[in-house]
């Protein structure tokens, strides 16, 4: 297993000692698209990729990716969480970027093959093997600003990870950005590198100026998502989250939390809501972020227009913890897979 030179110890409590995403299994799987067809799946050592400097991705940003986890089950074995949903979203992102559409059976085979190769590197839950398929346009043509890349490369990396947001129950600090957009109204649903690049300056500024962990994008007061997760308001009986539209990423964890919440008799409300409602809700309720890395992490405080507003006592609230525990238990096989999410 390899580590990047910058990898450093962050917490002895984490199941892997390196920061999320900096440690890689030795192998990756890879296919290429050319002349209208996909090549056979190759297994390669993880290392530099040969890319022509004129590659479409390097100039016109033709890249998308996915992020999912394989878990070590309590009773042995390894399962991937909601693989079909992640593959579907990967295809949707490819479609939105006019990249060649990777067939679901090829992507699934690449992921499963890699998990089999990395079995010994998978930590015990709540650690996991994070799986990162990436699709990039490789046509060598700097004149193709207005044309899709006719060639592409798809590869899958695997990275053993600990508990990304584990902060001993301490809530996250979130800056509310009520003017800027993370992406565009139609492209937020793509898991495209460009969306992260366009949000980055806001996240960097929030961290530097306010010590915030993330930014909640709320253009014109419309509460959407953070730079890397979906957003929920939670109380003893309800969950409130934005309904699916093209402006934000349709989180697989978001869907899982909603399903589990309904199962636990919460009333799930999917409707648009405003920053004013968030401020009102946190007088008595909880707020949380959902994502493959974050699972369901509590918000401890919001920074808004220069002032800080504490949520509860600043730690993860009891309903957030209850839902997060239910999801983690299912992911690691401690409770029955009653929705058929593990494969
Ligand atoms: C912008 C953004 N929104 C939401 C999510 C949550 O998606 P998921 O639950 O599928 O990981 C992520 C994380 O991948 C993300 O990057």
TrEMBL record:
Family: Belongs to the class-IV pyridoxal-phosphate-dependent aminotransferase family.
Annotated keywords: Amino-acid biosynthesis, Aminotransferase, Branched-chain amino acid biosynthesis, Pyridoxal phosphate, Transferase
Gene3D superfamilies noted in UniProt: 3.30.470.10, D-amino Acid Aminotransferase, subunit A, domain 2 (3.20.10.10)
Reactions catalysed: L-leucine + 2-oxoglutarate = 4-methyl-2-oxopentanoate + L-glutamate; L-valine + 2-oxoglutarate = 3-methyl-2-oxobutanoate + L-glutamate; L-isoleucine + 2-oxoglutarate = (S)-3-methyl-2-oxopentanoate + L-glutamate
Enzyme's top EC category: transferase
Domain of life: Bacteria
PROSITE patterns: AA_TRANSFER_CLASS_4
Biochemical pathway: Amino-acid biosynthesis; L-leucine biosynthesis; L-leucine from 3-methyl-2-oxobutanoate: step 4/4; Amino-acid biosynthesis; L-valine biosynthesis; L-valine from pyruvate: step 4/4; Amino-acid biosynthesis; L-isoleucine biosynthesis; L-isoleucine from 2-oxobutanoate: step 4/4
Cofactor: pyridoxal 5'-phosphate
Listed InterPro entries: Aminotrans_IV, Aminotrans_IV_CS, Aminotransferase-like, B_amino_transII, BCAT-like_C, BCAT-like_N, BCAT_family
EC number: 2.6.1.42
SUPFAM superfamilies in the cross-refs: D-aminoacid aminotransferase-like PLP-dependent enzymes
GO molecular function per UniProt: transaminase activity
Protein name: Branched-chain-amino-acid aminotransferase
Role this protein plays: Acts on leucine, isoleucine and valine.
